[in-house]
Amino acid sequence: MGIGVSLFFLTIGAILKFAIDPDVLGKAVHIDVIGVIFMIVGGVGLLLSVILGSRRGTTSDSHLMEHENHPPRP
Fold first, then answer.
1. Sequential pLDDT tens for the chain (74 residues)
2. Where, by residue number, does the polypeptide cross the bilayer (predicted)?
3. Which among 12, 29, 67, 73 is least surrounded, fewest beta carbons within 10 Å?
């Protein structure tokens, strides 16, 4: 899950939680609870995307910078 998808889940969750009447679908479906679940999934996805993205970025960037600073010897 990327950052964009995580933000999408957070946005949909916030809309379901705060902008829609909880009884819009009746008493059987708790739309506000579904919104909280979406926000949790989006938050966890965003956190993992940032953590794993920074780990991936530092290894590839340091590898590229190593070759830029020290060109291969003939």
1. 789 999 999 999 999 999 988 888 888 888 999 999 999 999 999 999 999 888 775 555 555 555 566 666 76
2. 29-52
3. 73
Contacts of 8 (CB under 8 A, 6+ apart): 42
Measured distance CA(18)–CA(26) in Å, rounded: 17
The DSSP-derived string for 1-65 is: --HHHHHHHHHHHHIIIIIS-TTTT-SS--HHHHHHHHHHHHHHHHHHHHHHHHHHHHHHHHHHH
